[in-house]
Amino acid sequence: MALHRTCDGVARRDFLRVGVVGGVGLTLSNYLRLASAAENNGKPLKSGIFVNLNGGPTHLDTFDLKPEAPAEYRGLFNPIKTNVDGVEFCEHLPKLATCADKFAILRGVSHTLGAHQLGTEYVNTGTRPIPSLEMPGYGAVTTREFGSDRPLDLPPFVAVGRTQQRPGCIGVKYAPLVSGTPRAGAPFSVRGVSLGNGLTVEEVEKRQNLLAGLDTTFSGFEKDNQLLDGLDEFGTQAYRMITSKAARNAFDISKESPAFAEKFGDQAFGTSCLLATRLVEAGVGFVSLSLGGWDTHRDNFPKLEENLLPTLDTGLSALFTGLEEKGLLDSTAVFVTGEFGRTPKINDRSEPGGRDHYPRCMFMLMAGGGIRGGQVVGESDDKATLPRNEAITPDDAAASFYHALGIDHTKEYHSNTGRPITIVRDGKVVKPLFA
After folding, report:
1. Is 41 helix (H, G, I), strand (E, B) or coil?
2. Number of Cβ within a 10 Å radius of residue 159
3. Which residues contact 316 (CB under 8 A, 6 or more apart)?
4. Which residues, including other chains, have CB under 8 Å from residue 430's CB and lie 6 or more apart?
5. CA atoms of 190 and 37, how far apart (whole Å)
6. DSSP output for 352-367
């Protein structure tokens, strides 16, 4: 996907790249050596998909239109009916309108962090950021809770393209394997999973034997160092992944039937959604995706109409319906959000105007994992400036997402200094989502 830079200068870059974890140039083998074998806690095993809409999408021009508001608020787009009685979306989201029964809409979500990076950290963890502690993202927590229950030849957590899903204070061993973006109709290659440059499985086997000898040589050093913990075990896992046909197939979207793949389209976001369905189907526990470009201070309406909304509409509708077709929607919790909404009143920086940062009112989408689709939870006021009643916070949405994943959001971890860390510090489960 294209690199997007937001107005406050924060580059939306890959935190991790293919085969590179934590910015320290680790190979896939090293990545797996750092991964943790989480304890099997006997909880129901579910998968998660997190879709980050980088830049902050406008709520009034997408899922919370106000056609009766004054012109300077309501904007240029008209509402259309969905397949759920009484629920309307923007006219440029027709495909999502036909599958509105598959997901729930949270309206009137509210917080106070109007800077891109702070808002992004907040919605990617469910806890307000503080300078002294980087909280773990949903993928890292899911990996810690369920990672050992996943297939040995697949990574438990994959980020497709750039990601803000970080392991934070629980350690780099819970970081994702980051892949590039697949292209429609083409085999997909992930460094270290797909064998390239003439490398054969037999050559990998020879290298594995050499690595085993080196691992034995260094096994007596730094026994308490988490970066070396489980060295032999993770070398074996790396070998299993590299030589596994199942792992290579999971990343290869060209193996999907044309009839199934067609609805995802040929743009990067759609093919990333297609890859997410394959990875979850194969046994990957968590997948993160992103679609940037929502920082529409200028030219809000042409950017939405010509690019952003059709791209989101195609990819996201195919993700929801595709998961259902594969029988995976009930067991896969999906969370879609930006870092904030955008100002209800249109600015005059361009013609026909833009919208600025606005955390006090926004939307989120949630589906799967026991969440009841076809409903709207929460409400904004008549101009979408504030929640009409009690606000839903990012903390509450995070608690609900973890609940859908089968994870207790009040569970405590401990840092390497013994500091207690609650997964979500202040949130509560939004019960109507599961009614």
Report:
1. coil
2. 29
3. 51, 96, 273, 336, 365
4. 106, 377, 392, 396, 397, 399, 400
5. 23
6. S----EETTSEEEEEE
Which residues are CB-neighbours of 150 under 8 A, at least 6 positions away?
156, 283, 284, 285
- The domain defined by 28-434 folds into Alkaline Phosphatase, subunit A (3.40.720)
User: Which tokens sit at 344?
Assistant: 């209800």
Output the tens digit of pLDDT for each of the chain's 435 residues: 455 556 665 443 333 333 334 433 444 444 444 443 333 344 457 999 999 999 999 999 999 999 999 999 999 999 999 999 999 999 999 999 999 999 999 999 999 999 999 999 999 999 999 998 999 999 999 999 998 888 878 889 999 998 999 999 998 888 888 888 888 877 766 765 655 545 444 554 555 555 555 555 445 544 444 444 434 444 555 666 767 788 888 999 999 999 999 999 999 999 999 999 999 999 999 999 999 999 999 999 999 999 999 999 999 999 999 999 999 999 999 999 999 999 999 998 878 899 999 999 999 999 999 999 999 999 999 999 999 999 999 999 999 999 999 999 999 998 877 889 999 999 999 999 998
